[in-house]
Amino acid sequence: MNITDIEIRRQFVPLIKPFKTALRTVITSESIIVKVSTDTGCHGFGEAPATVVITGDSLDSIEGAILHVIRPQLVGKSLSNYEDIFQTLHSCMVGNYSAKAAVDMAIYDLIAQKAKMPLYQFLGGFRNSMETDYTVSVNSPQEMGEDAVSYLQAGFHTLKIKVGKDDIEHDILRIQEIRNRVGNQVKIRLDANQGWGVKEAIRSIRKMEEMGLAIELVEQPVKAHDIEGLKLVTDHVDTPIMADESVFSPKDAYAVLTTRAADLINIKLMKAGGIYKAQQINQLAELCGVECMVGSMIETRLGITAAAHFAASKKNITRFDFDAPLMLQHDTVKGGVVYEGRCMKLTDAPGLGITDVLEVEHT
């Protein structure tokens, strides 16, 4: 099975409600859809959302990287020698993680198809189902409380609360309002998206602990580059701290793990450059006794299916943040992971199990 072509197109899918974090507001999911073809007639699919404030990748840069650098390097290569393919993919250019991730997941799709196995089994097969959390965008305390109640009523047991957009005292009011609305029956995890300073993070997390707000974890409280600051927060609070934007590569993970700068790591394919490197990050974390979550950007069910197959394959991945497709007005994917409320199930179809990705008219 040899690669004969790599095709791309742009995909735009409007969100049901604007998605707001400390870093950005999203009203439309924008991504590059990748289709890798082979001489056997099989096709592999991948997706790369444009997330310039996190990965630095835009639609133009993803498109250019795939068409002008990655495609010429990979066309003609054999899927039987997939280690060579991944080495070439990750060495052909610096950065451009989202472009690499989209091609990486399409290649893994094909490799698993060739093996006649669903990808999660090919990668390890630890589980075939999981439960996702649901994200509450940062808004007024009242609106966030109302959103939290609606997600609880929809059957979600874990809520990921976006904070860090403005004054941290307002964040505490938001969390109080949500906890008052949903009671103690729901897990609450916070994601500051680098929005807090070191001292205010320590002070505020301690205050929330004293108030008994029962926070499961706090994700990326400080700037991505501030590993020393991240460690200070981790060392001075009881609540588990998760590194997200601080960890793109296995090298980043090594720096966080060897300094014990965080208690947990959030792996995203768009940061890691795909499943190949994501596996290395998880292996390092597991060696150090650190559990991982697998998360995502604002992606369609295509990108999430690839992330879900990776997450399902590994025991050390214990948390799942895969709600993005539920935020979209249209489901463009045929096949792939199946949602039943908060529950996600992987099918026995070979590879990712995706047969087509429909286009949505962009207005």
Automatic annotation (TrEMBL):
<dbReference type="InterPro" id="IPR013342">
    <property type="entry name" value="Mandelate_racemase_C"/>
</dbReference>
<feature type="binding site">
    <location>
        <position position="24"/>
    </location>
    <ligand>
        <name>substrate</name>
    </ligand>
</feature>
<keyword id="KW-0460">Magnesium</keyword>
<feature type="binding site">
    <location>
        <position position="160"/>
    </location>
    <ligand>
        <name>substrate</name>
    </ligand>
</feature>
<feature type="active site" description="Proton acceptor; specific for (S)-substrate epimerization">
    <location>
        <position position="268"/>
    </location>
</feature>
<keyword id="KW-0479">Metal-binding</keyword>
<feature type="binding site">
    <location>
        <position position="244"/>
    </location>
    <ligand>
        <name>Mg(2+)</name>
    </ligand>
</feature>
<feature type="domain" description="Mandelate racemase/muconate lactonizing enzyme C-terminal">
    <location>
        <begin position="141"/>
        <end position="240"/>
    </location>
</feature>
<dbReference type="InterPro" id="IPR034603">
    <property type="entry name" value="Dipeptide_epimerase"/>
</dbReference>
<feature type="binding site">
    <location>
        <position position="323"/>
    </location>
    <ligand>
        <name>substrate</name>
    </ligand>
</feature>
<dbReference type="Pfam" id="PF13378">
    <property type="entry name" value="MR_MLE_C"/>
</dbReference>
<dbReference type="GO" id="GO:0006518">
    <property type="term" value="P:peptide metabolic process"/>
</dbReference>
<dbReference type="InterPro" id="IPR013341">
    <property type="entry name" value="Mandelate_racemase_N_dom"/>
</dbReference>
<feature type="binding site">
    <location>
        <position position="321"/>
    </location>
    <ligand>
        <name>substrate</name>
    </ligand>
</feature>
<dbReference type="GO" id="GO:0000287">
    <property type="term" value="F:magnesium ion binding"/>
</dbReference>
<dbReference type="InterPro" id="IPR029065">
    <property type="entry name" value="Enolase_C-like"/>
</dbReference>
<comment type="similarity">
    <text>Belongs to the mandelate racemase/muconate lactonizing enzyme family.</text>
</comment>
<feature type="binding site">
    <location>
        <position position="191"/>
    </location>
    <ligand>
        <name>Mg(2+)</name>
    </ligand>
</feature>
<dbReference type="InterPro" id="IPR036849">
    <property type="entry name" value="Enolase-like_C_sf"/>
</dbReference>
<dbReference type="Pfam" id="PF02746">
    <property type="entry name" value="MR_MLE_N"/>
</dbReference>
<feature type="binding site">
    <location>
        <position position="296"/>
    </location>
    <ligand>
        <name>substrate</name>
    </ligand>
</feature>
<feature type="binding site">
    <location>
        <position position="219"/>
    </location>
    <ligand>
        <name>Mg(2+)</name>
    </ligand>
</feature>
<keyword id="KW-0413">Isomerase</keyword>
<dbReference type="InterPro" id="IPR029017">
    <property type="entry name" value="Enolase-like_N"/>
</dbReference>
<feature type="active site" description="Proton acceptor; specific for (R)-substrate epimerization">
    <location>
        <position position="162"/>
    </location>
</feature>
<feature type="binding site">
    <location>
        <position position="135"/>
    </location>
    <ligand>
        <name>substrate</name>
    </ligand>
</feature>
<protein>
    <recommendedName>
        <fullName>Dipeptide epimerase</fullName>
        <ecNumber>5.1.1.-</ecNumber>
    </recommendedName>
</protein>
<feature type="binding site">
    <location>
        <position position="298"/>
    </location>
    <ligand>
        <name>substrate</name>
    </ligand>
</feature>
<dbReference type="GO" id="GO:0016855">
    <property type="term" value="F:racemase and epimerase activity, acting on amino acids and derivatives"/>
</dbReference>
